[in-house]
Amino acid sequence: MHSEFELIARYLAPAPAGDDRGVALGVGDDCALLAPTTGQRLAVSVDTSVADVHFPAEAPPSAIGHRALAVSLSDLAAMGARPRWCLMSLTLPEADDAWVAAFAQGFHGLCAKSGVALAGGDVTRGELAVGVTVMGEVAPERVLTRGGARPGDVLAVTGALGGGAGGLARWRAGARDLADPLLRRYLLPWPRLEAGQALCELAGAAIDLSDGLLADLGHLCAASGTGATLRPEALPLAEGLVEALGESDARRAAQSGGDDYELLVALPPASLEPARARLAALGLALTAIGEVTDEPGIAGSTVDGVAGWQHFSGDTP
Amino acid sequence: MHSEFELIARYLAPAPAGDDRGVALGVGDDCALLAPTTGQRLAVSVDTSVADVHFPAEAPPSAIGHRALAVSLSDLAAMGARPRWCLMSLTLPEADDAWVAAFAQGFHGLCAKSGVALAGGDVTRGELAVGVTVMGEVAPERVLTRGGARPGDVLAVTGALGGGAGGLARWRAGARDLADPLLRRYLLPWPRLEAGQALCELAGAAIDLSDGLLADLGHLCAASGTGATLRPEALPLAEGLVEALGESDARRAAQSGGDDYELLVALPPASLEPARARLAALGLALTAIGEVTDEPGIAGSTVDGVAGWQHFSGDTP
What pathway is it annotated to (chains A, B) (predicted)? Predict the structure, then answer.
């Protein structure tokens, strides 16, 4: 059993101060001190992941650490921001060294891969939950918001859909091997940071897909004052999804399942091919799935009355 | 029963974009967009407050909202930073409109009084907890850290000590009236933001008192590579503390009780009177309580072997 301070010191290793990551003072004082880049906007977001609401409490701790950071970074991706720093709040029922070490390994691994510096955090006792605040930078003229879609724009998604819901279904069916592609999509999502930065000069609007395509498309349309027509048959399905769920449920998962963490963008038709080329260079597909319209509402969906995954609704892992 | 989105929209009212608070885009997109001041350091900190670990679950919701923000702002105070923005993560077991409305009133009230703009947040389901990320700004040459104490410096504290522990004792004894001064100190602490900014040109080091004087003095000494001599008889005691706990336990609470959220500073002897004058102008006392030494360890304490309040230690409200 270790004290809070020892846990923090051992596993929340600070980013070194004075290096090129803009951390003037890291974990261990009352605040971290950061040096933002002159002229850039600071994009900030926080997401809290609660055990057995957002992820299974029994998931591998390294995946819990990776995933908690990934879902926050996904918000930076949707704004076209470059990730710089994060803060992490870990609440856990007991001070279990091995668990925390594996958790930290997953968290720090994604920090390193995404170029984000852990600048601070706290460890408290309670029901297992992880809160991650991310901070990124973006030039004011390059910011991607939800509100810039225009009638006539093409709607397109990165990667493939339904993997979050499919992976959850696989978990519930007893799958535990992280080599399973769907389980990986659910437990080890990859934030589309490079894609967001590559698309921000071409797209008019973007949102990350956390609540499900239909719900998030609804948010984008509401912010833009538009409607949309969806072509469900065009949706790119995650690897193994049809095999796991069958064709009908796979299409349904792609439309209303949460936790995909792909980007949905609206862009002028002439920008679709240049955007595809940029993402191809990153090894990522971009698929046109519909159009922005001036008619309120979302037409074309084959899922009835589903507004996406919400908390408090009883739909938990 | 309201959906997550409705709760967020209704109670996490964003700071208006485009005003003088540096919020370019507020709550409701994937990220908030902030405009940091050129040349300033960004001071960031996060604190998570868990029900029945950090505060009583049955406390008035407006106090829970106030307190969760106050403990994070206290970290900015200790760095001498001016508060600018915050993000708030609320985890709660059910969507109770009246509770959330009162919570938000306490949170927004302190936002307004401290000049901090709520820039974003999330609402999730789970055991009651509140995570608050605060961001402030400070000129690089004015930063207060824990590491700048020098042998010969005077140790001084703002306000009065023991109120956090005394208020907790009053709560446990059944006190519920927030007119009780000790209960107010525990449930409605006031972050010493103006004091921190007023002291940063005079003090060499500072820390806020969250874990208890002895523990936090230990952190300050460790960061500064010094020791300290404490004069327990000099400690300023919170109003009503002796009456509530008796003389001996009151002195003990002032030394090892947590949750006071006063500032402990180390400053050259010649700076003590100017510092007192600055705080007097704010209506706040500054009391010399000991000296910084070059001898490792803390001498003079009348409390045996107490390293302050820690999580995982079983000492919960």
Answer: Cofactor biosynthesis; thiamine diphosphate biosynthesis; thiamine diphosphate from thiamine phosphate: step 1/1
Residue A211 assigned to a binding site:
yes
The structure tokens listed for B305 are: 């072997």
Instruction: Check B46 against A4: CB less than 8 A apart.
Output: no
Distant-in-sequence contacts of B242-251, Cβ < 8 A, 24+ apart: B244/B166, B244/B169, B244/B170, B244/B182, B245/B162, B245/B165, B245/B166, B245/B169, B250/B162, B250/B166, B251/B302
The SS3 of residue B18 is coil
Ranges for all domains in chain B classified under CATH 3.30.1330.10: 4-141
Q: Which residues of chain A neighbour B85 with C-beta distances below 8 Å?
A: 44
* Of the partner residues B39, B50, B87, the one whose CB lies closest to the CB of residue A133: B87
B49 among annotated binding-site residues:
no
Q: Could you give the residue range(s) of every CATH 3.30.1330.10 domain in chain A?
A: 8-141
A47/B122 CB distance under 8 A: yes
Please give the structure tokens belonging to residue B31. Answer: 């990220």
Residue A2 clears pLDDT 60, i.e. is over it: no
CATH number for the domain whose boundaries are A144-299:
3.90.650.10
What CA–CA distance (Å, rounded) separates A254 from A239?
12
Question: How confident is residue A3, by pLDDT bands cut at 50, 70 and 90?
Answer: low
B197, B259, B312: best mutation site toward chain A, by most A Cβ within 10 Å? B312
Q: Give the whole-angstrom CA distance, residue B6 versus residue A285.
A: 34
The CATH label, of 3.40.50.880, 3.40.980.10, 3.30.1050.10, 3.30.1330.10, for the domain at A8-141 is: 3.30.1330.10
Average pLDDT, chain A: 90
The pLDDT of residue A280 is above 50: yes
Q: Enumerate the residues of chain A whose CB falls inside 8 A of the CB of residue B34.
A: 41-44
Q: Would you state the CATH architecture of domain B4-141?
A: 2-Layer Sandwich (3.30)
ipTM of this complex prediction, to 2 decimal places: 0.90
How do residues A104-132 score in pLDDT, each as one tens digit? 999 999 999 999 999 988 888 899 999 99
Beta-carbon separation of A146 and B87 below 8 A: no
Chain A environment of B125 (Cβ under 8 Å): 50, 53, 311-312
pLDDT digits (tens, 9 = 90+) for B138-162: 999 999 999 999 999 999 999 999 9
